[in-house]
Amino acid sequence: MKHHALAITGLILVIFASWASAAEHNEFGMGLTLGEPSGVHGQFYWGPRSAVEVTTAWSWHDWFMTTVDFQMYDYLLDSPDEWRWYYGLGTYIALPENENGTFGVRVPVGIKYHFPHSYVDVWAELDPALRLIDETKAEFQAGIGATFWLW
Predict the structure, then answer these.
(1) Domain range holding 140?
(2) How far, in whole angstroms, is CA 40 from its chain's centroid?
């Protein structure tokens, strides 16, 4: 339980630091994430090429998951500016019903499309992960989603 409190405290600190930075850069969006699990996310740009994304999701199998990812963005070769790819490093905490939780690290890699003259992005990502608590185990996560830019 001590590990869960530490992970949640770290997550809260990252959210507040990211929110303060996002307000400064005028880049904050919220959206939907579909996959296993599915949920909502917030994304905060720190600069033109870096962002932090926080996702809170629920599984069909009665568990709750939160991820925090630092992401770096770049444009795809010879493609329009609407297309960008990203990679990063993140953590996750999963809290299954009636069991101990798990904690691990993940490496998100994805592609994002921004609809011209709109406030909407769509994206798809793959996330190789390594569970560290309660056992060490390789995992694989993935998702698709949409982000709606609020300011």
Answers:
(1) 2-149
(2) 10
Q: What tokens does 37 get?
A: 């699990």
**Token representation of residue 111:** 């592609």
Average pLDDT over residues 81-90: 93
Number of domains in the chain: 1
If residue 13 lies in a helix (H) or strand (E), which one and from where to where?
helix 2-25
- Which CATH number fits the domain that encloses residue 61? 2.40.160.20
pTM for this structure?
0.78
Adjacent-strand bridge partners of 136: none
CA distance 28 to 9: 22
List pLDDT tens digits, range 18-54.
Answer: 555 444 455 899 999 998 779 999 999 888 889 999 9
Burial of 132 (0-12, 13-18, 19+ CB in 10 A): middle
